[in-house]
Every structure is written in C-alpha cells, then in structure tokens.
C-alpha cells in the first residue's frame, strides 16, 4: 500500500477524533461547581451516636483492657458547602485487669472535649461522606475495685474520623463513623508512677444527625 495513501488515512482519522472531543461548556462547568460540596451552607448539624471502642494497644505492661462502650455528641455549623466547624464531646469506658494474677482492677472513664473541623467534598445521592479532625483534652478518671489506687493523667487529645451520612429527608440522616483518638500519658498509683499509660483507641459509632 502506498505510503501517501496510508498517511492520508491516518490524518483523516486524527481529524475525526479531534473533532469528536467536545470542549467543556459554561453550563457543564457551572454544574460541576454546584455539585462540589456535601452540605448546604449555613446549616447546623447535631449528631447523637453510640458504639464500641477497643484500645489500639495494651494499656500498660501487664495491664489488660476490655472493649468498652462509646457515646458521642457533636454540634457543627457549615460555613459553606464543604467546611464545618464546632464542638464534639465523647465518653468511653474500659474495664482494666492485670494478667498475673488475674484480677479486675476497675474501669477507666475518659471524657474528651474536642473543638472539631469537618470537610465534606462531595455528595453522592443521599450519601455525604466526610472526614473530621479534633484537638482538645482527655479527662481521665478511674474507678477502683481493689485496694490499688490508680489516678491516670489528663492528656492532649487528637482525633481523626471518617464517616458518612445517609439523608432520610432534609432534617434527619443516619450516620456511621470510624475514628482514631490519641490518649497517651501516665498514671499515679499507691505503688508508684506508671509512665507508659496509653489509652489511645479506635472508635466505631452508629447513630443519627439532625440538620436545621
């Protein structure tokens, strides 16, 4: 087949292919802009969730903990279609025991107060995925079941969460969220100080949110 004939066909196919590519129009660009963001601006969001929480590691040398309950409430305000800020308060409890001898020592309670920001980049139908982050304080306390007295320190709290809302209507959404929270400090006992008292945890939450 002559070279010029092949070249002519290749040029023709190239021209047809380029002609089939449509440039984005102003309307499509505006539509994409409107779809960015997972919430309406100027909305208050109240969340009420509960779930369970295991520690990320052993609490301390020779100390074991149980998977405990977790309760979380939050209030956020959407400043635009993708950025929210507000406050989150979270409570959790873990039973604490020692391995040798096998003795239940009591339970540690943690109340975390966390100023929080949240990003919602997209909305997928009725689903609104998000990521949030909070910094604050873990207020730790201990309820003893034995003569050993334990006083865990209050610690710096850093929490990172991922989740999604499923909007049932304009006011109510179902919610699920997974999070990591740092709670690393020390504890004083009547037997001495424990420097590696680490109650950092994962949280698994399920509940509802109200929009207004």
What does this structure look like?
- There is one protein chain.
- With 212 residues, the protein is mainly beta.
- The protein has a single domain (41-211), classed as Porin.
- The protein is 13% helix and 59% strand.
- The protein has two helices and twelve strands, in the order ααββββββββββββ.
- It has an eight-stranded antiparallel beta barrel. A three-stranded antiparallel β-sheet has the order 7-10-11, with no helix packed on it.
- A hairpin with a 2-residue loop joins β10 (184-189) and β11.
- The radius of gyration is 26 Å and the shape is elongated.
- Mean pLDDT is 88; it is low at 13-24 and 26-34.
Write the layout of secondary structure elements.
Layout: H1 3-20, H2 26-35, E1 44-53, E2 63-65, E3 68-78, E4 83-98, E5 103-119, E6 127-144, E7 150-152, E8 155-167, E9 172-182, E10 184-189, E11 192-198, E12 201-211
Antiparallel strand pairs: 1-3, 1-12, 2-4, 3-4, 4-5, 5-6, 6-8, 7-10, 8-9, 9-12, 10-11
